[in-house]
Amino acid sequence: MSTGSESQNSLVIPFNKPYIPEKTEQYMLEALRSSKHCGNHGWNQKCIGWMKDRYGFEEVFMVPSGTAALEMGVMLAGVGPGDEVILPSYTFSSTATAVLLNGGTPVFCEIEPDTMNLDPTRLEEVITPRTKMIIPIDYAGIPCDVERICEIADKHDIIVMVDAAQSLNSKSSTGKWAGSNVPLATFSFHETKNYSCGEGGALVVNKKEWIERAHFLQEKGTDRRLVLDGVKSKYGWVDKGSSYLLSDILAAMLFAQFEEMDSITENRGKIVSVYKDITRSFEDRGCISTPKPPQGTVSNNHAFFLIFDTQENRREFIERLKTDFNVYAYIGYVALHSFKKGLEMGYKPEDLPITEDLASRIVRMPLYADLAKSDHELGYAANAIQTVLSGIYPE
Ligand SMILES: Cc1ncc(COP(=O)(O)O)c(C=O)c1O
Questions:
Q1: Suppose 117 and one of 36, 135, 144, 156 were both cysteines; which one would form an S-S bond, judging by CB atoms 3.0 to 4.6 Å apart?
Q2: For 213-230, what is each residue's pLDDT tens digit?
Q3: Bridge partners of 118?
């Protein structure tokens, strides 16, 4: 394996690098010195207030990860044994494990190639009388067609929760913020995301009647919230639940990035523009394809991907970028239905041929806010990508 030190170039362009605003240390120190380090204190409230004001979310629960947000959301939706939950196979394992942990059965739906998101035209094929929930994802920060998905779901009385792990601050083609136009949505603040605190997440609950119970699930199945709100004097055990709380120290770290959200998004956008420019001629020649968000979509520029014409060309691209230039690009998700757990559930790779094929040819490019701040580094990455593509696809 190459460590990078063998390369002739001293520059290394990693796949991701968390962005740390100047205010981060000050805010984290304040949180540390407050002696209130557990969940739902001042910095958590700042993050919650910020998201509710900016995006119009009904309620937000700050949780330890995007995975925890999914688990809590599936629990809140009341999924249990015998219930089926539809999700794309092209997603992170957490979307499926949240269903399994609640006793439900994941059922995989095909995706569409322009965005890699769940294909609403294929949804009704997998709906059965047992379908309780649909969890589409917003891949690469591009919102899925949630309006269309909700329309179908409403017809069948199915709950929709968007796994918006990657799409905070994106807008759908109808101008709605990701997570605002659906009963439930989840976000991730893992270090690989645009706005991050190491590990963290949020569950958005837009249905007023579900909010009180969500507090109980978040607080280990207790009605502690009612005590904090002055409704009761003593709290006790009322429901199932877990410890779905984010430490206030991490919330302080995250808040510093929320304050710089626009410039983070803009810097990422600058990189996406460069990548679009340098890949256009290869796309015109049919060698690769790039994301095609629906008209009017505003992306948070979470990721930029290329879909190669063959799996072998994908492999060569990643390898040559790494060994010749120290530039790190990665494959996307491995389709869940055709990996060990999916196969154990009875799926075969050919059950979702579109997902299987696209997942085997996709590559995600290096993308992080700081890369846009150095013309030298961005230029270096762009030149490396162009050189490797030209080598694989000579004129
Ligand atoms: C679509 C999706 N869902 C869920 C997660 C899990 O988020 P976390 O790492 O915060 O638990 C990820 C992580 O990358 C993701 O991409």
A1: 144
A2: 999 999 999 999 999 999
A3: 111
